[in-house]
Amino acid sequence: MNPGSESTAGAPTPAVELVDLTKRFDDLVAVDQVSLEIDENRFFALIGPSGCGKTTTLRMIGGFEEPSSGTIRLHGEDVTGSKPYKRLVNTVFQSYALFPHLDVFENVAFGLRRQGVGPDLDRRVNEILDLVQLSHAATRRPRQLSGGQQQRVALARALVNHPRVLLLDEPLGALDLKLRKEMQIELKRIQQEVGITFIHVTHDQEEAMTMADTIAVMNKGRIERIGEPVEIYDDPRTPFVAGFLGASNLMEGQVSGNDSITLPGGRQVRVKPGALANRTGKAAVGVRPEKIHLGREGADEEPGNRLTGVVTDRSFIGVSTHYLVKTDAAGELAVVVQNIAPERFSPGNAVVLTWSPMHTFVVSQ
Ligand code: ATP
User: 23, 138, 232, 338: least buried by Cβ within 10 Å?
Assistant: First the structure.
């Protein structure tokens, strides 16, 4: 089926569909009944800690690993069990694996020459070199290129085949932080320009949030959460997602209304209206460190939730300062303050922490 074509139900056919996809290595279940749909033209990130099954999932989509059970459909076609070259999918790996003796142009042209592409070859290679901004380096060998430029050649080599889905396995892993950040923006631009689905595997949650329009968080072979970065960040729903995607302060207490819990010491923490409707017993709630306002007793306090405590640690991170505050009611909480704030606190200072119930999410235990 063509991009954007419709299935019989009327909804557009997803670029990638996984149905109960499972991979076992002897006793180990590396990927455990994963089902998901990825639409056309998405930048999709698969994230999770080391060993959670990201690469195995990607390898099954690419056809490099045979599933133990389940189905893989690409643009509506069942490709489970078909060879990698039969799929309109290309992969960019962390190791660029460029041919050292060939120049940039020939590295990119290599696959096309093998396929017997004729008069069109020069135009196609030049078009892609233009896209990755390497036209000026077409005659250079890989060793004459920076890490970021080599990564662009690897990307060009995958894109020149006009895949309908591009798989990226930690493609920026070998780059230093500054280059990595530049390439994140670059990759996103390229994805938008070529308009195909990118599936990007990374353990770097910040990288995923920078680039992806949909994120799937994997934990022990399963997808624990899927959604837009902002949606998942603001309402992570489980302690694992709250801790993996950014930092969180979690507090446990007894449900004391539709929108509040009472901490063990008796203090109330309010959450978004109705977020605890129909709940009783114990519940855990969370707040992101940068959503907390830090002030001195009696100074202009934000309305909403309020705890008192003592600063135990302070680290200066350039744009922000990270504090640890030992609170009376909820243990040690992390607070991130942008460095435009007028006041700085030191370990030992008594402080008041305030934050909005709208920034307080509920997590299931
Ligand atoms: P990382 O971020 O470290 O690459 P990952 O999330 O990509 O991790 P996978 O590489 O998919 O994880 O591995 C998932 C699990 O399957 C791990 O426990 C790994 O040791 C195991 N595994 C992967 N490939 C094989 C294999 N060929 N044989 C046996 N076990 C494997």
Answer: 338
Q: Is the CB of 53 under 6 A from ligand 1?
A: yes
Residue 63 CA to ligand 1 center (angstroms) comes to 16
> How, if at all, do strands 43-47 and 197-202 pair?
parallel
Q: What is the mean pLDDT of each run of 10 residues along the chain (365 residues)?
A: 49 94 96 96 95 96 96 95 88 85 96 90 94 93 91 92 92 83 90 94 91 96 96 94 93 94 94 91 96 85 87 94 95 94 90 95 88
> Nearest C-alpha to atom 25 of ligand 1 is from which residue?
25
Closest ligand 1 atom to the C-alpha of 48? 6
First to last CA, the chain: 43
Best residue among 55, 57, 169 to mutate for probing ligand 1's pocket (most ligand atoms within 8 Å of CB) is: 55
In 48-164 the beta strands, taken as DSSP E runs, fall at 69-74, 77-78, 89-92
Q: In ligand 1, which atom is closest to the CA atom of 52? A: 6
* DSSP secondary structure letters along 130-183: HHTT-GGGTT--GGGS-HHHHHHHHHHHHHTT--SEEEEESTTTTS-HHHHHHH
